[in-house]
Amino acid sequence: MLKKRHTSFEFECGTDEAGRGCLAGPVTAAAVILPKYFRKGVINDSKKLTPEKRTEMRKLIENKSLCYSVHHIYMEEIDQINILNASILAMHHCIGKLDTTPEFILVDGNRFHNYKQIPHECIVEGDGKYLNIAAASILAKTYRDEFMMKIHEEYPMYNWKQNKGYGTREHREAIKEYGITKYHRKSFKLFPEQLELPF
Question: Is 173 marked as binding a ligand?
């Protein structure tokens, strides 16, 4: 059973990211402030929901949350600042775009940088413990999946509509055969073996 909130603050924000471990595509974060009396439906950690349920819950979150935002950090910036910093920066951008300034930030994971002196707490596996983080995880996952489905049309040989940019065997084999694209993260180890890539 997910907890509704971690603090007594009215405007507690949950934030999470998707795509941190991918070889291609952006890292995407979302931030959500839910109302005190929110009917949670079947909201849960996005990884535990089917794509159909994630889409259904996304609509619920977007319609019933006090406010939400989503932000992508793209491949070039990931390569420049590293994936951890890119993930945190994406969360910061989301929080900054919220219509309401949060009084407290609840973060999925164990690393975060202070944001404008707003108190925060990191919760390991928080998307399976707190409703607002789970809601953020659903938004981050569905918006990122949409992006990967779109760029799949441009490079169908990598099958991003299925693997969403993660390092599956099929994806790595396609990299071996076709090389890398503008959507690949050049700072990541793209092959199982230590191979030189022609950038």
Answer: no
